[in-house]
Design brief:
single chain; about 300 residues; mainly alpha; disordered N terminus
Length: about 300
């Protein structure tokens, strides 16, 4: 009986098919990791906040550059009045532990500190448009992201993975690309006459954008995390630059599209993996509850996928 001879040219075919199948499997895993419903929802929420910030930036610079209006406190005051009329009144008529008086009795000093910090931050940001441009303000925002991650590490006990640092670096690279596009495209100095009616309309637009930002920001942070929100709103300045093409006569550059793509890539990478929360030293909570506090929606989605895989 003759031994079976090895196949000739057809021998590498199973190996090639196996490599092709592995590549397809890897692509499916990447697609399932990066393009989940939770990540798409996070991207959409982040861009909604970016558009609100874009509205505040455009109206502030339009008032400062076109009409030479310098009223940072008045701009923020209108927004705070809207917040007071809506949310303070809602809490005042609630009963139980959600009543305004009960909340203030427990945490009044915390709200005072947060209020002072918020008022000062809004004043400085609006004031900055009197002396600099959208790009410079955006660069200042970038310095806040490493500080936010550091504070989250020590105060909120957030624990980041290597992919999170890579994602943040990619986002900052995108911002650097945007600055390069800003320099190459240049700026055209365009001035116009001051019109009282337009200035009133700009104040209202600024207040409405700020009100929407304050209303949606806590919900988005609760659904994702503080760091992912700050990475997502890096695109706000790009939206402002796109509007500036028509309002301020900015010159278009293809680097704007590249910077937007790079920022979104870094944002998706960051959201693809949930951070972990370390257990505080004095905490008596079991260790199992100290995982996945940050970006809880993504963590729950991962758990569901793991459960489904085990069941299969």
């Amino acid at each position: 009986m003759e031994a079976a001879s090895p196949a000739g040219p057809d021998a590498p075919q199973p190996v090639a098919q196996g490599a092709e199948g592995a590549s397809r499997s890897l692509l499916r895993r990447i697609k399932g990791k990066l393009f989940t419903w939770n990540i798409l929802k996070t991207i959409a929420l982040g861009q909604m906040l970016s558009l609100c910030i874009c509205g505040t930036a455009i109206t502030s610079q339009y008032l400062a550059e076109r009409y030479k209006v310098n009223t940072p406190m008045l701009q923020s005051f209108i927004n705070y009045c809207l917040l007071f009329l809506v949310y303070t009144m809602m809490l005042a008529f609630r009963s139980g532990s959600d009543n305004l008086l009960i909340i203030l009795k427990r945490k009044w000093w915390k709200y005072i500190l947060l209020g002072l910090a918020d008022v000062e931050a809004n004043y400085l940001v609006v004031r900055a448009y009197q002396y600099t441009t959208l790009t410079s303000v955006q660069l200042l925002d970038c310095f806040g992201i490493p500080m936010l991650m550091a504070l989250s590490w020590f105060i909120l006990y957030a624990r980041y993975r290597v992919i999170h640092f890579i994602a943040v670096s990619v986002c900052l690279l995108g911002v650097g690309t945007m600055v390069g596009a800003d320099v190459l495209a240049g700026r055209q100095d365009d001035s116009g006459e001051s019109v009282l009616l337009i200035c009133a309309l700009l104040f209202v637009a600024f207040a409405l954008c700020m009100f929407c930002l304050y209303s949606f920001m806590p919900l988005v942070i609760k659904a994702t995390s503080a760091t992912s929100v700050n990475l997502g709103i890096l695109t706000a300045d790009l939206y402002s630059l796109f509007f500036g093409l028509f309002l301020f006569g900015y010159k278009f550059s293809g680097l704007y599209i590249l910077s937007f793509t790079v920022i979104m890539l870094g944002f998706i990478l960051y959201c693809s993996t949930p951070t972990r929360t370390a257990e505080p030293p004095e905490s008596t909570v079991p260790a199992v509850t100290s995982i996945g506090i940050d970006n809880l929606g993504l963590k729950l989605e991962e758990n569901l996928q793991e459960t489904h895989s085990v069941a299969l």
